[in-house]
Records
---
Amino acid sequence: MIGGYLPETDSNTLQLVKNEEALSVNRIGKSPRQVKFKNAIIIWVADIENSYDKFLAFFSQWESKEPVDIKINFTDLGLTG
């Protein structure tokens, strides 16, 4: 699902919603969940069925091009050991 007026959608957004890797995460990711939201940084994780692997996504709501320092514990992602 995408919100907005599609005829005015910029090319970067259109490339993202047509990106095969992003679409794959949506199709095969299980139990997607937000694990952190702090200072306009959002982190989501999703499981991959029958695998110890995870999908991990970082989003910044800031419009800055400066690097952002992000910290998260592996246990927040459901990883142990």
---
Amino acid sequence: MEIIGSVLNTSVTGIDDMLDTRDVSKLLEYSDLQLRRGAQRIAVNCGSRVDTEISDLMWMVQEIQKHFEVPLVIDSPNPEAHREVIPLLRFGRPMINSVTAEKTRLEALMPLAKQYNAQVTALLFDESGMAREPEDRLRVLPVITDAADAYGIAPGDIYLDAGVFPLSVDHQNGSIYLETLKALQERCPQFRTICGLNNISFGLPCGQLTDMVFLSVLEQAGQSAVYVELGQETGAAVSALKLLYGRDSHCAAYLKNYRAGLLIE
């Protein structure tokens, strides 16, 4: 499962202040820690800063790429932000987060994905929002898959996001997501799957405990990727899962992380 570090988001405490002061050292500290905790890509999101979003994204992208050769994900509801920032990306393939089944979003972002050979996170909702029941969420799936075909985007470059909602809102939200994930895998095995993992624990105490367990469940369920704010506990879980699933030769990364104090006792 691919891990996309998502702590560089203005909804996270401290990121607004970092942007206001253009604190490069803090930006690099956040980025380095996400990478050390197992992130393979880093997502950047300044969506709450409407007036300065594009310049904020440009600053983050340029500074991160001066120091780390890491693929970046541009997370924005604003197509113009993607148009301005995607050309700046230098390492790996870009990813657009996110397309939806809304006509205006598809028409604005799918051509950009084609132009820049970008991968796409596609949320399963349209103008009416996202439904609660798995079968209702899947009703917009043909709109997204048809658009991918029409714009020449390979299915393997589309990451379908069925939407994780907090357990604090509805204790069934975890099981609803897993049921939807299974249906996606059965109906569209050629597409990938993704979600915002930390949403599951929003509003709950000891959130990283729930996140750790959910991460393990998603790994077992065959999820392709997750967006996750990697804290110490979730970072340790990523390291342990990599080891347990045979992706850590001679336990080298696990032991390195232990010596660096990145694991938990």
